[in-house]
What does this fold into?
Amino acid sequence: MRILAIDTALDLCAACVASDDADAPLSAESLPMLRGHAEALLPLIERVIARIEGGFEAIDRIAVTVGPGSYTGLRVGLSAARAIGLATGKPVVGVGTLSALLAPLLAESGEGMIAATVDARHGAVYVQALGPNDGLAPVHLPVEVAAERLGAGPVVLTGSGAPLVAAALAARG
It folds into this structure.
């Protein structure tokens, strides 16, 4: 199965084509940006698709991040994914931003908890965590409350909110 993955939720505009029979993406590109996703996304997708044999016809599914993230960025990504899905007849699926951040850590996970965090500004984060015995469903919390909910054990953090949560965890001992 080949999946066109689109991410415009945070501070970059990215797309890749991944296949279940390959360890690395078949084609990928990302551009760091705070604004301008609407102008950058479709040309970026066109370049990514041009590098795979069969073009859009070789894609089986389209995946797109659905948040949390920038409202405008999310609208751009969702609109593009939906348009490509309608034009190609391929299904479109949403992927939570926090789940997407956690996915690479699942294979590397050792003992303790893994947590994806996104800086929600104003002293808060969006956080989702998975652990051997428990976890934390995606939620918006003040940084200190997120640190408290993650507990005292070892925690591997990822995402733009990781430095904030790490500092709060360190302050808790």
In short: The domain at 2-95 is CATH 3.30.420.40 (Nucleotidyltransferase; domain 5). The chain has five helices and nine strands. The longest strand covers residues 113-121. The chain has a mean pLDDT of 95.
